[in-house]
């Protein structure tokens, strides 16, 4: 169900990308964790990359897919690192399967619902492009520019546009499924008992995804939570300052390799 890349040796840690991403997005972190003697499993979320398409992608269902992967791999426990949507999936999994999670890192997201218009221009443009014949990277970039989507986001989205054997471009996203399930994706986490284990929230200083008003909900669900802020970064903190981000994650996870 979930496509994954499994590398390295040691205790297992799974890396989970954000909305419109894929298993490659946290590749630099994966390399750093392998060097720190972790077995690193990077996944494509449902309806992303090479994972199953047409999947009902509520947070609960995506956490269920993650649990199926753990059982498939025969792992007793693993640590989790998730960015953005991947962080919400990781939090949902940790609360619903606490005995299987040795530690949790959440990158620039809170366990709350967000406003529905946050990705509307991206979703509308992707929907339009999804029905466009003879799609090219150039035409897709022109559409993103016309929609006022910034260059960094455009470059990130274009990573999902891949040619087939005949040279025709296709999205490695189920755009229709993402649009349909978007209210679930941006909604709050399902209700489960608090996760009692170690948690690190890492915030990009300039990002508005993780804010002081989210602290009560974080504390309610994750009573052992700690926080770090990476200055001079936004929501893409792992790409903007990868050395700092990777250091925070590897140092936090180090005590939980046993």
From TrEMBL:
Q: Which SUPFAM superfamilies match?
A: alpha/beta-Hydrolases
Domain of life, per UniProt, equals: Bacteria
GO molecular function (one): hydrolase activity
Q: Which UniProt keywords apply?
A: Hydrolase
Mind telling me which InterPro entries this protein's record contains? Answer: AB_hydrolase_1, AB_hydrolase_fold, Epox_hydrolase-like
A Pfam family name for this chain?
A: Abhydrolase_1
The record, for Gene3D superfamilies, names: alpha/beta hydrolase
Question: Which intervals hold domain AB hydrolase-1?
Answer: 11-242
Q: Does the keyword section mention Phosphoprotein? A: no
What protein name applies here? Esterase
Q: Which lineage? A: Bacteria, Pseudomonadati, Pseudomonadota, Gammaproteobacteria, Alteromonadales
